[in-house]
Amino acid sequence: MASPLLPLLFCSMILLPFVLAQTKSVMVIGDSHTATTSTSPWLVSSPSGDFAFGFLPLEDTPNTFILCIWYAKIPDKTIVWFANRDKPAPKDSKVVLSADDGLVLTAPNGDQLWTSEGLSVKVSSGVFNDTGNLMLKDSGSNSAWESFKDYRDTLLPYQTLGSDQKLSSRLKENDFNLGRFELLFQNDGNLVMHSINLPSEYANENYYESGTIASNTSSAGTQLVFDGLGGLYILRENKEKFNFSEGGGRVSTTQFYLRATLNFDGVFTLYQHPKGSSGSGGWTPVWSKPDNICKANMVDKGSGVCGYNSICSLRDDNRPTCKCPKWYSLVDPNDPNGSCEPDFVQACVGDELREDLYDFEVLIDTDWPLSDYVLQKPFTEDQCRQSCKEDCMCSVAIFRLGDSCWKKKLPLSNGRVDTTLNGAKAFMKVRKDNSSLLNPPIIVKKKDRSTLILVGSVLLGGSACLNLIFVGAICLSTSYVLQYKKKLRSVGKIDTTVETNLRCFTYEELEEATNGFDKVLGKGAFGVVYEGVINMSSVTRVAVKKLNTFLLEDVQKEFKNELKVIGFTHHRNLVRLLGFCETESERLLVYEFMSNGTLASLLFNVEKPSWKLRQQIANGVARGLVYLHEECSTQIIHCDIKPQNILLDDYHIARISDFGLAKLLNMNQTRTNTAIRGTKGYVAIEWFKNMPITAKVDVYSYGVMLLEIVSCRKSVQFEEEDEEKAILTDWAYDCYNEGALHALVEDDKEALDDMNTLEKLVMIALWCVQEDPDLRPTMRNVTQMLEGVVEVKVPPCPSLISIQYSLN
Q: What are the domain boundaries of the chain?
């Protein structure tokens, strides 16, 4: 008779390989793992299962992954180490253990995203232990590389930080790019924290120092130790311990998971998480350094903890919160800790000098300590307010100590709430109207005043009945006159619903600024652009667009569109509109000056711009369109993307301009029907088929322009001797399909030496110019393909209908 243990033994033998596969903690040469959501996310896990190593998807970017180590038994999978800090891995990226190079992470196109650096011997295996340390070992089982020595932003128990080693914060909570803060163990034994002025490596003043340097009474520190019992201390040369937590105590490593993390906001915190928790516990802080980063981190060559013009306040967990003052907004809405800019124009010219335009927002115990430019004392509170109001340079005045007035100007740095200021008042100067678009006051002329006086006399002198009749007649006649004047002036007034934060210039100001509209920068269907210089708190070069007024109704539509669209937008890849001018017969728009002209003048020149610069411009325009399509509160379809409408600043950063044809959509609206807009050669087929217009028309125009950027030739060249090359989109597909992409760039050596990128850009462009809008990617997808985050598949033939090229 068979033993009853045999079935159990048989099942155990079957399940054993599965269990081992799930808890595999040793890697052999050739082991690999692919980034995908359909399989196990880890390559190896620690023997206890507490830690895992593999791919996790990024929260904000679909189909992109980070190669990392994380706590595997808690619901939020907290990441404690990561490999590809600044190069997210697209789906189907692979990590392989190689004898020569250790761990190697490659994208699907073969590009190397990361490798374990510093290897001096061949690797024979990889071991993942229960401390969370991933080690690569040589044939003698010696450590060749380990994650505990490849520091990121977190320390784990049993990990140390030695001389000249550092932790670097993330850029944001869920952005693993290099951040602004460092925790550095200096070679003199001092452990310090400071901020970095990115993208440089300049370190600001330390906002924390352990003070563990050699002295008459103590020896220098040698390393920061996170021991297995939960203690964090600096070990000195004489073996004494400097307790980093200063009375914070130890936390049981048997009951809690622990991590010490330099957060993206610069606070170094020890966190604990109960083991065996089903999610109810979560990570809670045990202690943090510094105690108040808002006050501790004060720098004289940077913005401080928060961005410029922002205010830092402390949360209950000793982490900072950054907030813009009232009437100020974030420069980058996606960066709550970034800089703020005023929602109004404050300047030292013309009507802006009028003190009655301004009022004050009063903030208590708020200061920007290093932004002073003058101290006035003894002064009363009223004198302090009045002095700032009369001073066009003054943006904030701080009144404290009963007789002292500190005046400050933009940009304001190191903003913070500080209760030790004992009720000090900060007077922030703001525009009373918070807008330059105000209806002009109604002025009653002398003749009209006489008429009103006569009417008043009649009303007062007549009987009640006659008065009623007379009032009725006046109302009817007034209504008729108003309707008549409204018709006459309908093309000469801005709709009162147009609200934005732009400066209103007088015609005389702009005439003087442009030297009588002397120097022409460019001409278009709607007007002429002139170069000028104007004083807006400083001497500023501007581009003044003077709209043609022979078609007042069309001009008025464009004028209002420009104000509506660009007045509320702010992005690195959009031209900034500074102000406007409206008279009965003139409409003018004032933009920031772009010193390097249009993309058209750069591309269609004798000398081709560099291949790297063209790629940079293509990426910039794509990011600008993503902002318009997805990140504005009102979706914007530009409708006229072409090289002539892409301007280049001092650094050749691409800026999208000319929003006159833009179509606005509400957030719950995805399409619109409208008359044909745009420029021949860049117009999508939807316009000619009476199909609904969506943001995909911009994608089409971008695809055409991307081919122009690649080839440095215009989209339509009917003078071309070879008819097959006349229409760029058709010719580009033929070149791609026939494997002759070199013909597109001719003798451009830089492009020819980078055939992989060249092919990728052409493929992206061909997807963008598909006749079927549903086949075109979104601009978000385009940016992901450009950055190598998303794979570019083989594009079909665009099947472009050439009807648009035959239009006059």
A: 27-150, 155-290, 311-431, 517-592, 599-806
β-pair type (503-504, 577-582): parallel
Which residue reads 């003054």 in tokens? 394
φ/ψ of residue 767, rounded to 5: -65, -40
Question: Are the C-beta atoms of residues 248 and 286 closer than 8 Å to each other?
Answer: yes
Q: Which helix (H) or strand (E) holds 646?
A: strand 646-648
- On whether the 27-150 domain is CATH 2.90.10.10, my answer is yes
* CATH level 3 topology of 155-290: Agglutinin, subunit A (2.90.10)
Confidence bin at 628 (pLDDT 50/70/90): confident
pLDDT at 786: 94
- The structure tokens listed for 636 are 């914007």
Residue 203 DSSP SS3:
strand
Asked if domains 517-592 and 599-806 share a fold, the reply is no
The model's pLDDT over 539-589, given as tens digits with 9 standing for 90+, comes to: 788 999 888 765 455 556 556 665 666 666 778 888 888 888 888 888 888
- C-alpha 266/C-alpha 296 separation (Å) is 11
Q: Letter for the amino acid at 234?
A: I
pLDDT per residue over 425-460, tens digit each?
Answer: 999 998 876 443 333 333 333 334 333 333 333 333
CA atoms within 13 A on the CB side of 674: 16
Fold of the domain spanning 599-806:
Transferase(Phosphotransferase); domain 1 (1.10.510)
Active-site residue identified among 153, 175, 265, 640: 640
The CATH superfamily holding the domain 517-592 is Phosphorylase Kinase; domain 1 (3.30.200.20)
User: Does an H or E element contain 358, and which?
Assistant: strand 358-364
Size of the chain in residues: 808
Collapsed DSSP state (helix, strand, coil) of residue 339: coil
Dist. CA 238–CA 220, nearest whole Å? 8
- Which tokens is 485 given? 């004047």
- Is 351 one of the annotated active-site residues of the chain? no
